[in-house]
Amino acid sequence: MEINEILESLSAGKISINNAKKLLSLYSIEEVEGFAKIDINRRKRRGIPEVIFAETKELDEIKKIIKKTLEKTNSVIISRIKKNDYPEIISFSKRLKVIIKTGKNASTLLLLKKAIKSHGGKVGILTAGTSDIGVAEESRLMCEAMNCKCITGYDVGVAGIQRIFPILKKMINEEVDCIIVAAGMEGALATLVSSMVDIPVIGIPTSVGYGYGEKGIAALASMLQSCSLGLSVVNIDNGIAAGGIAANIANRAIRKK
Question: In what residue span(s) does the PurE domain sit (predicted)?
């Protein structure tokens, strides 16, 4: 339960004051064998699920954190899973009998003990090219973990600018509350989208590119120097952060409607 759900349940008399106090505790930390401390109430406090950054962790550590997190919460995201670890984490997750949500071209998983209903806001997610899809899918899984509905449009970059208009029109008609744009090379798509809509846009520079300004440097610099207002930018390849920000914006917007 998130904070608003706890308060609504308390108001309706479904839970006691003591139970509400316990659920709202800000200091509940679960320790995993001395090497990890899990903030299990982050979801209740901020609406953001626990995220395991797997790239620099050992496989055994990842499994232990997954197991402990799912004992206490409904969901966990594992991002940047190493290629050799991915099949084993999938197999381990199946043994836990949880719902496994994967992303296209992504090394990220969303694990759920029970399905999440998309009762939050709406987020649009765009990529300039197919090479940006993995990062965009990180954002999608994060948004869906935070109860948001996602509308995606991939491979619609400025190299064929006519591709952007149908999906952007759909997003406007669907009244998305925020748009994420993942783009490598020169990162121009984020500025273009921001210049055409009255919706908050979050740019993700991706590490797609070569030569001068490679590894996302040119895309990051371009987005940071954008003259289009209404565009914010996260770090290179940081789809998780973009998803968290977008979902927070969308969920706050839906509560105000």
Answer: 121-255
